Amino acid sequence: MRITEIRELAVPLSGNVANALVDFSAHTVSLVAVVSDVIRNGTPVTGVAFNSIGRFAQSGILGDRMIPRVLAAAPDTLVDEAGRLDPARILACLLRDEKPGGHGDRAAAAAAVELACWDLLAKLDDEPAHRTIARHVDHRPADAAVPVYAAGGYYYPGDHGDHVAALRAELTGYLRLGYDAVKIKIGGASEDTDLARLDAAVDVLGDGTRVAVDANGRFDRDTALNWAQRLGPYRLRWFEEPGDPLDFDVTAALAATYPGPVATGENLFSAADVVNLMRYGGMRADVDIVQMDAGLSYGLTEYLRMLRIIEEHGHHRRQAFPHGGHLINLHIAMGLGLGGCESYPGVFAPFGGYSPGCVLADGMIRPSDAPGFGLEEKPELRDWLRRLMGD
């Protein structure tokens, strides 16, 4: 088996939402296809993936450096002993001659290709990706649903209406869809406004343990600790990314004083970063939440290294809730037995949220039986996939 072609397309996100620091209206995502020489029904079997949501497309890195390396490699260097495509060997090829460190867009670029290889492997076996992933790590294939929460409560630039009423309506809609937990943003408005929004969220959900808040790295140490005092009585699901993701002093200070779970990790792009989080971030085993995202950190191969590191430091993989509310991370959470996943219902199209074949009820979600990650089942993605493949 060999790879005959790798294609990439920069796809814009639709919608106009923001968190405390970032307006997502100009963001793009790299949609990637890895085409094999295996022909079924007259068509090459092709793996499809993307680099996750919340950064930008990496067209230059992929087109100028990474894709040419893979296409120029001897085919037998990219497969395992059984002749099957090996995502770890693909990743090593993508990173040939790259110096250690400097994780960032390079990590997300490599992830898009590496994850597309997992989609390809699952399609070759005619099974959902979570089963392929589970078998790879000798984990019992997961066929049950996994916990999911709705990540919403964003700010809408230019909207000067009743923010609290709009948030109530949004969260009530999530409950009707079958979610039973939510996450909302803080730090992008005045403290009084954000607390009013939080009060509304807790009122709609009925319990603070069903509501998480996310500051997206906005706060300095003193502001984060002040917020921790304000949030303590709510007994929230978790307090996410209070400060800069690499300022482990902020995370450690919060973990030392805040009684509830602290969540972080979505902007850590390598196993080395996770080692430093475990060493210096004050993360509490059986309490705090880690949110690394394979789509932003070199793919599933590196994500598995990250999981091993947190487990070596006494954390259970059920404390892992990957960032990125989309189909790829649903399959990863299911295949690896993680704590659950998030969802972006109604935002970050065409990538956010799940396909119509996914079953959502009582805060649990199960993917369809479509082979691979099932991206072809997302109606919003179909036109983009056709453009990617030139059909």
From TrEMBL:
Entry binding sites for Mg(2+): D214, E240, E266
SMART domains in UniProt: MR_MLE
Active site, UniProt feature: K185 (acceptor), H323 (proton donor/acceptor)
The UniProt record lists the keyword Cytoplasm: no
Highest taxon, organism lineage: Bacteria
Cofactor note as given: Binds 1 Mg(2+) ion per subunit.
Keyword terms, alphabetized: Magnesium, Metal-binding
Cofactor(s) needed by this chain: Mg(2+)
One Pfam entry name: MR_MLE_C
Gene Ontology MF term list: D(-)-tartrate dehydratase activity; metal ion binding
Name of the protein described by the UniProt record: Mandelate racemase
Organism of derivation: Mycolicibacillus koreensis
